[in-house]
């Protein structure tokens, strides 16, 4: 594996640095407090090409490979403090765009991908239900074919981008007798009759990323919006979830790097007992641990993206990257608060928000316990 950048990659990564610094350095305290989704920043990111990093140019993307994509997202996470916006973008990329790229028909790709890339269409993924979370395939929402439509009934919970979505990838049971092989995936557009996207959910972190509950009451979906074949839902979900696990926390590696540099600055500036607190071994040790976590996280992220780019199976790499980065992110944030003392606990210092934003990463895209289950089964336990 060679992770040195070509001139072209370097150019793109430097451009992301500049873009984030110049366009995305807005005040976050009020946006977080009032859970404001920054649509202007969403469009700027799309305009730069972030949403379509992995999508081929034919459909409006930048046609980058996975490693360049995650490195660009890492730079974005370094430069942009709006973790909620980044989470919304990532949900859009990995749970809506990727399934379309790999499983969409030509007509579906032409219809949705250009808008998903230029930001005019907001996407998301609706799998979780009130009674099926980690055991995702035990979902209850049904889809029954009637003529040239499917009729969906049921509800979904915790849908990232749900309240602002133009299209959601919805998983439903088409043949209960077949278990996981009886699930199918549908591209449900926001104006579908019988679809209700209005129920917002307030959360602890990534508050600027809208989340909602979604209800389907005899919701009509044209048969041409079936993604992949009928019954391919669980396979399709597993495939896109693997991408999601491996890559959704790329920006968080950049976030950790920014937090790490903030802590070094603070530890050098803040004096107690006549010396900089960074000279205390227990403070320095925390920053060293941050460094170790970041390097390990980056390595696992790049390794996973490299393997994906070389068309290798990444089940193990993706679960390990997800587990490593999410747990590192939370620990880095806890350490950052501790290093900042009482100031770290105060909203003004913007470290407490980072912790609130980080904690969700141990829950979405499969909890840490589920990642450990996957890793255990893949290493022969
Ligand atoms: C910020 C955020 C964004 C989200 N976005 C989306 C989205 O866009 N679309 C979507 O469909 N869902 C989304 N989710 C939902 C997320 O995927 C689920 O919360 C997650 O899969 C866990 O399901 P659950 O909440 O029902 O918890 P449960 O599955 O009920 O788990 C509860 C606890 O039991 C543990 N547990 C469960 N099963 C096992 C097991 N087999 N072995 C060991 N421990 C186990 C879990 O690890 C957890 O600690 C989001 C969640 C969050 C927090």
Descriptive overview:
This protein is of the alpha+beta class. It folds into three domains: 7-122, Acyl-CoA dehydrogenase/oxidase, N-terminal domain (Butyryl-Coa Dehydrogenase, subunit A, domain 1, Orthogonal Bundle); 124-235, Butyryl-CoA Dehydrogenase, subunit A, domain 2 (Beta Barrel), CATH 2.40.110.10; 249-378, Butyryl-CoA Dehydrogenase, subunit A, domain 3, CATH 1.20.140.10. 50% of the residues lie in helices and 15% in strands. It contains 13 helices and ten strands. The protein has helices at 7-23, 29-33, 39-48, 66-79, 83-103, 106-118, 233-247, 250-269, 281-309, 315-339, 341-344, 352-359, 368-378; strands at residues 123-126, 142-146, 149-160, 167-173, 183-189, 195-200, 211-222, 226-227, 271-272, 275-276. The strands form three sheets. A four-stranded mixed β-sheet has the order 1-4-5-8. Strands 2-3-7-6 form a four-stranded antiparallel β-sheet, with no helix packed on it. Strands 9-10 form a two-stranded antiparallel ribbon. A hairpin with a 2-residue loop joins β2 and β3. α1 packs parallel to α4 (66-79). The longest helix has 29 residues, at 281-309. The mean pLDDT is 97. Flavin-adenine dinucleotide (FAD) binds at residues 91, 124-128, 133-134, 158-160, 206, 360, 363-364, 366-367, 369-370, 373.
Short description:
The chain is of the alpha+beta class and 381 residues long.
Could you list some keywords that capture this structure?
Butyryl-CoA Dehydrogenase, subunit A, domain 2; four-stranded antiparallel beta sheet; binds flavin-adenine dinucleotide; Butyryl-CoA Dehydrogenase, subunit A, domain 3; 381 residues; Butyryl-Coa Dehydrogenase, subunit A, domain 1; 50% helix; four-stranded mixed beta sheet; single chain; 3 domains
């Amino acid at each position: 594996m060679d992770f040195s950048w070509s001139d072209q990659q370097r150019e793109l990564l430097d451009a992301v640095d500049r873009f984030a610094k110049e366009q995305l350095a807005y005040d976050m305290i009020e946006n977080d407090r009032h859970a404001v989704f920054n649509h202007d920043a969403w469009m700027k990111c799309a305009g730069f090409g972030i949403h379509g990093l992995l999508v081929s140019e034919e459909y409006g993307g930048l046609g980058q490979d996975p490693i360049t994509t995650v490195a660009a997202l890492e730079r974005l996470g370094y430069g942009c403090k709006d973790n909620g916006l980044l989470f919304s973008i990532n949900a859009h990329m990995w749970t809506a765009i990727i399934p379309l790229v790999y499983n969409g028909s030509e007509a579906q790709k032409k219809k949705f991908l250009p808008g998903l890339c230029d930001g005019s269409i907001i996407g998301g993924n609706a799998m979780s239900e009130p009674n099926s979370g980690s055991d995702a395939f035990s979902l209850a929402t049904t889809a029954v074919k009637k003529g040239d439509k499917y009729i969906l009934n049921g509800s979904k919970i915790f849908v990232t981008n749900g309240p602002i979505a133009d299209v959601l990838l919805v998983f439903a049971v088409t043949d209960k007798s077949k278990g996981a092989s009886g699930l199918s995936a549908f591209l449900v557009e926001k104006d579908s009759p019988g679809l209700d996207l209005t129920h917002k959910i307030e959360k602890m972190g990534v508050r600027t990323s809208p989340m909602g509950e979604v209800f389907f009451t005899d919701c009509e979906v044209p048969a041409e919006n079936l993604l992949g074949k009928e019954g391919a839902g669980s396979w399709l979900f597993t495939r896109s979830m693997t991408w999601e696990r491996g890559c959704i926390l790329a920006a968080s590696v950049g976030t950790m790097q920014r937090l790490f540099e903030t802590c070094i600055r603070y530890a050098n500036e803040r004096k107690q007992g006549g010396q900089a607190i960074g000279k205390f071994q227990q403070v320095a040790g925390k920053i060293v641990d941050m460094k170790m976590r970041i390097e390990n996280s980056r390595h696992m992220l790049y390794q996973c993206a490299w393997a994906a780019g070389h068309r290798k199976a990444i089940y193990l790499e993706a679960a390990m990257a997800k587990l490593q980065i999410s747990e590192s992110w939370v620990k880095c944030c806890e350490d950052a608060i501790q290093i900042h003392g009482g100031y770290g606990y105060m909203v003004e210092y913007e470290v407490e928000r980072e912790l609130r934003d980080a904690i969700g990463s141990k829950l979405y895209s499969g909890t840490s316990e589920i990642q450990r289950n996957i890793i255990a089964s893949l290493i022969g336990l």
